[in-house]
Amino acid sequence: MGVCVPEFVNLLKLCVGADSVEDLEAWQDSQSHRWPKGHAVHVTRMWPKRAEELLDGGSLYWVIKGMVLARQKLLGLERVAGGDGIQRCALLLAPEVIRTEPVPRRPFQGWRYLAAEESPRDLPKTRQKEEALPEDLARALAEIGLR
Fold first, then answer.
1. CA distance 132 to 142
2. What band does 79 get if pLDDT is binned at 50, 70 and 90?
3. Which of 57, 61, 86, 121 is 20 to 30 A away from residue 8, measured at CA?
4. Long-range contacts of 18-24 (CB under 8 A, 24+ apart)
5. What sections of the chain are H helices per DSSP?
6. What average pLDDT does the segment 90-117 reach?
7. What is the DSSP-derived secondary structure letter of residue 112?
8. Which is it for strands 59-64 and 9-14: parallel, antiparallel or unpaired?
9. Coil, helix or strand at residue 69
10. Is pLDDT at 129 greater than 70 in this prediction?
11. Collapsing DSSP states into helix, strand and coil, what is residue 32?
């Protein structure tokens, strides 16, 4: 009997300007009047080449202060033109921000694909408000395979 491998992929993106998951939630709440009802929106420069795989169950995982701390389910992709006329990709996200196990990530530009099997697990509802471990401790645990 073979192992069931998910068919979808996720995106990994830095959450620039946020110091916490609460900052991300507050910013999205302040912008929600601009977005389609029932969605959060994040606009990125590039259109994902693996769009079908993303929309087959993928999420956008947020890196905040060097740690993956949360995710939002990807609901759709839309082409949008910026004020400069350049076409961009609007990531349509579920409004719920789901906290994940804290996993350290080094800074990077743009976004990265993240395989489903390599994605941090969601925190149980009872641990949603838990503070993240200090980055050096979380990194050390990840290096020895405990995350």
1. 13
2. very high
3. 86
4. 18/62, 18/64, 18/65, 19/64, 19/65, 20/64, 20/65, 20/69, 21/62, 21/64, 21/69, 21/70, 21/97, 21/99, 23/64, 24/62, 24/64, 24/70, 24/97
5. 21-31, 51-54, 135-143
6. 93
7. E
8. parallel
9. strand
10. no
11. helix
Q: Classify 51 as helix, strand or coil.
A: helix
- DSSP label of 38: T
What is this structure's pTM? 0.82
Tokens of 85: 């006329």
Q: Locate 70 and state its tokens.
A: 């949360």
Of the candidates 19, 106, 101, the one whose C-alpha atom is nearest the C-alpha of residue 64 is 19
Other beta carbons less than 10 A from residue 31's beta carbon: 12
CA distance 113 to 48: 9
The span from the CA of 117 to the CA of 115, in Å, is 5
